[in-house]
């Protein structure tokens, strides 16, 4: 987010807070008649017995600089007598409301304007607890502050993922100022002091400073009871996720055994799992049992942390990791190595026979370990050769469907990677005879013609498309492009189909795909799904000069940083003819002045030369 976008974003949030704070209502009963006065950001109402009798509308929020607004109307009593109702509303620090009937003042009240950052917002902890109480787990990953955190109508990340991928520069003195304010809050916990700490926490993303905050909290010399009291106050009032995170870190430096259940419930939300585990480990008993409960309950980023820190002490725990640990495939590439290691996959597969459940679990882990994007993949697994060998042995019994067969083609692709890659593997843990033995074992399965037939039939007849069918068909070099386009008509925002068509490397097919996207997508306001599909196209256009130029232009104009970067990379690979087009030149100039990403600015400037 550039400076201009960030400023507008902050102003929008400030405006929302102001609108909620100045929305005040006064009600008074006068001789059986209800007189109601309502103050809003841009309008005031006088309502008598449910009927609006006077309205003042403001052109802008700055009209609040006027000291007072007057409203008036008439009230008819039961005896028919008419009386004038006069209202004056105004004030800067407090909103004062004076109501008169003729010359008699019947109300003179003021309501203080405090603009507290936690007021008028849904609180996060009750939001989580309600879900846990109703479902014993988190069923909806969104949080009440999503619009504040990501921006209204902006793409959301999986809970907790932002903390892992954030690369923003640190704000100087952020932590020192936060700790100074928090110490003042601990010594004198007034509304003013708490507000100052709260506002400093949400000034930046706490994840950037997590380790520094932990270090500073560890050096605090304060009363533990005061520390716990303020941590719990912040948890109770937190309407922003970073305040919850800070409060949990603080609680972790106290004897928080009595709050273990609260921490567990908060930890069920992937956004807070790693923070909850920190506090559980720092200040509680039966730590491993609590973490194990989280391992079994969370499904996303939180599971990565929980599995990383849990000890699988029993055979039942190990079996669960092998069969359920990667079950829903969410982030299975990142947790596969941990599940395989802690669950002792090599030992489990050494048995003469295994359950179908274990075979399926092993298959998912092997797929994760063989994923190209996995930094902790098969090359980091010390038992790779033994596990692959035993998996292929058990496939004789359990390989019955395309899902069962899919990991076998991934093993084949792994075994047949470039010789240069294998030379490195031979210099580390692999032996040449191990690779050869595995290639011979795989050959028995992949030479069976039934798998290519099953894949083609699935693409032709299935009601739901499956990525395994596509990859198996491509493995056997079947021409499925026409089938993919047929599926595309049914599912125009299925990114898997875009990837598959781009992977054909066929010029005509890619031209048709670009034309399809241009006609189907809302190019002026892409949905999140459309952005994903467009990225699948743009990232692979380098070798297809001039194809999809309108889409490249849309990508340059996007608020999505990844899309812009892919588009810039494509233009760098193409000849200068395209970058000199007026519309593209204008977009490049805009990027050089608005983006805060150095790589983007650098590429844009190069393209403008």
Describe the structure.
- With 609 residues, this protein is α+β, with helices and mostly antiparallel strands.
- The protein has helices spanning 3-22, 124-135, 146-150, 161-165, 174-187, 191-201, 210-218, 224-237, 241-251, 260-267, 273-283, 287-297, 301-309, 315-323, 332-342, 345-349, 356-369, 384-398, 402-415, 419-426, 432-446, 450-461, 467-475, 481-490, 495-502, 507-520, 528-538, 549-557, 561-573, 576-579, 582-594, 598-608; strands at 24-30, 33-39, 43-48, 51-57, 68-76, 82-90, 94-101, 104-112.
- It has a 4-stranded antiparallel beta sheet.
- The longest helix is centred in the N-terminal third of the chain and has 20 residues, at 3-22.
- It starts with a helix and ends with a helix.
- The relative contact order is 0.04.
Quick overview of this protein structure:
With 609 residues, this protein is an alpha+beta fold.
What is the strand and helix layout of this fold?
Layout: H1 3-22, E1 24-30, E2 33-39, E3 43-48, E4 51-57, E5 68-76, E6 82-90, E7 94-101, E8 104-112, H2 124-135, H3 146-150, H4 161-165, H5 174-187, H6 191-201, H7 210-218, H8 224-237, H9 241-251, H10 260-267, H11 273-283, H12 287-297, H13 301-309, H14 315-323, H15 332-342, H16 345-349, H17 356-369, H18 384-398, H19 402-415, H20 419-426, H21 432-446, H22 450-461, H23 467-475, H24 481-490, H25 495-502, H26 507-520, H27 528-538, H28 549-557, H29 561-573, H30 576-579, H31 582-594, H32 598-608
Antiparallel strand pairs: 1-2, 2-3, 3-4, 5-6, 6-7, 7-8
Helix pairs in contact: 5-6, 8-9, 9-11, 10-11, 11-12, 12-13, 13-15, 15-17, 17-18, 17-19, 18-19, 18-21, 19-21, 19-23, 22-23, 24-25, 25-27, 27-29, 28-29, 29-32, 31-32
